[in-house]
């Protein structure tokens, strides 16, 4: 995809978000792989037509939930598809994930002209990024929201909201009918 974007925008400035490989792999374990291995989500994702809820407030969590409006099975399939793309087809192959990580960085460095490339680490903050883009430094702290546990916790939240909706939609009516039946039999 990077090749196509650079072909379409040959003078584009490119920010390569640099991460050390071992912490990145650990983050993948605590996000993508943990999500895909979580049994309750697998069970809920196997139920057709279960949809993630819509939230009115715009937060990072609500943005994710809006994205996850398709059924949860499609979402977990998407996570597997992303991993398969990064691993050459074998989404569970951690060795291949490591290799592709290294290849990706080498490829970007090879195809982007040096003057158009910023290798940015989140711990560098706003300074180098804003200088590279010719923008003023914001008065707010540099965001730090893409951590493996936070990604997993968003999925846990989606799970409980959807599970709650299923209870309200299917279990509550059964309980109301059972109570009415019991009450009128007295």
Give an account of the 3D structure:
The protein is mainly α and 186 residues long. The protein contains 8 helices and 2 strands. The protein has helices at 2-8, 21-37, 39-45, 60-67, 72-87, 94-111, 126-133, 148-185, and strands at residues 14-17, 117-120. A two-stranded parallel sheet has the order 1-2. The termini are far apart.
List the helices and strands and how they pair.
Elements: H1 2-8, E1 14-17, H2 21-37, H3 39-45, H4 60-67, H5 72-87, H6 94-111, E2 117-120, H7 126-133, H8 148-185
Parallel strand pairs: 1-2
Helix pairs in contact: 2-8, 3-5
The residue ranges in which pLDDT falls below 50 over 5 or more consecutive positions are 64-70
Tally the helices: what do you get? 8
Mean pLDDT: 81
Q: Helical content, roughly?
A: 55-70%
User: Secondary-structure element sequence?
Assistant: HEHHHHHEHH
Distance between the termini: 69 Å
Calculate Rg over CA atoms: 22 Å
Which strand order spans the largest sheet, edge to edge or round the barrel?
Answer: 1-2
User: Main β-sheet: number of strands, strand sense, barrel status?
Assistant: 2 strands, parallel
Shape: elongated
Strand portion, in percent? under 5%
Structural class: mainly alpha
Number of strands: 2
What keywords describe this structure?
single chain; 186 residues; mainly alpha; two-stranded parallel sheet; 8 helices; 2 strands; 4% strand; elongated
